[in-house]
């Protein structure tokens, strides 16, 4: 009986140790990705500091790929008049979050153009874009 009891006492710390090792490996990989982002090129913004006024959004033939030519959005067109609200609804993986991220200027477009208040998104400064555009995520952060 003592032998079985001691084996149980040995087994639990070993399981805990392997769990901690797996978590440590995940932390190392996450740290490497953070440093890759920090060492990479900074995102470019425009110089137009004028605040956004009307809230008009025009999306013209926007296509986007995270990598290479594997488009996740293709030829998207959208027109949102001033002072209107839009909800992006669709199946998982249909591109809702990607489109919202493009509207926030998080990624450069592969093709097409997005205009806010008639001004190209690429011409807006970081401060004008962040102060003039708001996004509500589907999942709480």
From TrEMBL:
Annotated protein name in UniProt: Multidrug efflux ABC transporter permease
Name of one Pfam family that matches: ABC_tran
Listed GO MF terms: ATP binding; ATP hydrolysis activity; ATPase-coupled lipid transmembrane transporter activity
GO cellular component: plasma membrane
Protein origin, superkingdom: Bacteria
InterPro entries: ABC1_TM_sf (IPR036640), ABC_transporter-like_ATP-bd (IPR003439), P-loop_NTPase (IPR027417), Type_1_exporter (IPR039421)
Residue ranges of every copy of the ABC transporter domain listed in the record: 73-140
Gene source species: Escherichia coli
Keywords, ordered alphabetically: Membrane, Transmembrane, Transmembrane helix
Membrane topology per record: Multi-pass membrane protein
Location(s) in or outside the cell: Cell membrane
């Amino acid at each position: 009986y003592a032998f079985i009891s001691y084996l149980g006492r040995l087994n639990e710390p070993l399981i805990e140790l392997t769990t901690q090792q797996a978590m440590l490996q995940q932390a190392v990989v996450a740290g490497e990705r953070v440093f890759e982002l920090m060492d990479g090129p900074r995102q470019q913004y425009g110089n137009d500091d004028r605040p956004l006024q009307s809230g008009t959004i025009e999306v013209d033939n926007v296509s986007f790929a995270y990598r290479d030519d594997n488009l996740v959005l293709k030829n998207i067109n959208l027109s949102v008049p001033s002072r209107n609200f839009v909800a992006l609804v669709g199946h998982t993986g249909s591109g809702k979050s990607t489109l919202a991220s493009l509207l926030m200027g998080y990624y450069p477009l592969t093709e097409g153009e997005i205009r806010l208040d008639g001004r190209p998104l690429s011409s807006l400064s970081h401060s004008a874009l962040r102060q003039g555009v708001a996004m509500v995520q589907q999942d709480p952060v």
